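Work Package 4 report. The design task specified in the project plan requires that, given a folded chain encoded as structure tokens, an amino acid be chosen for each position. We show below one input record used in the internal validation round.
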């Protein structure tokens, strides 16, 4: 996002620069406005009350962030449901090829997304259809359109934050 250029006068020169916001952009209010950070207490409550996490885009490779986050969450008592286009089992759990393939008897609390930002909208649509409570986009993943859609459907949204890091920071 670019904001209007500001001009700073230096002796003999005019310098233009853009101010680019840094840090997480997390939640868009259902009534409009811009996404703003979800408060720590909201994230803490989400982490405490959630039990099942569908990890979309999980890798079977142990050195990948998606595997490390899922492994950590499993070690903390969360049920992990791997979601990826191929494979049979990751972390001892059956791999599903889409969120809608997960049996209806399994409640999904959080959909943790490890996909490119531009690939997020269809995942959010599946999360809405599947009845998830929270859409969590990992660090570096920001999609305003998907955020708005999820919020309008009643889901909580976290963007550009690591679920593992937030758990380590907020849950003692």
């Amino acid at each position: 996002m670019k904001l209007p250029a500001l001009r700073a006068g230096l002796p003999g020169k005019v310098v233009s620069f853009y101010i680019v916001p840094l840090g997480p952009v997390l939640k868009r209010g259902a009534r409009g406005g811009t996404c703003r950070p979800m408060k720590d207490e909201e994230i803490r409550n989400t982490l405490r009350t959630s039990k099942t996490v569908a990890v979309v885009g999980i890798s079977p490779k142990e050195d990948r962030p998606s595997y490390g986050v899922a492994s950590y969450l499993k070690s903390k008592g969360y049920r992990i449901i791997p979601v990826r286009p191929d494979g049979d089992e990751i972390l001892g759990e059956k791999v599903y090829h889409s969120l809608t393939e997960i049996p209806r008897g399994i409640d999904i609390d959080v959909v943790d997304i490890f996909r490119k930002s531009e690939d997020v909208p269809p995942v959010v649509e599946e999360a809405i259809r599947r009845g998830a409570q929270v859409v969590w986009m990992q660090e570096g993943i920001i999609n305003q359109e998907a955020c708005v859609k999820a919020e309008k459907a009643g889901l909580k949204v976290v963007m550009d934050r690591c679920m593992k890091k937030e758990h380590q920071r907020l849950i003692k």
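Residues 1-11, 13-33 have pLDDT under 50 and may be disordered. Validation will be extended to a larger panel in the next phase.
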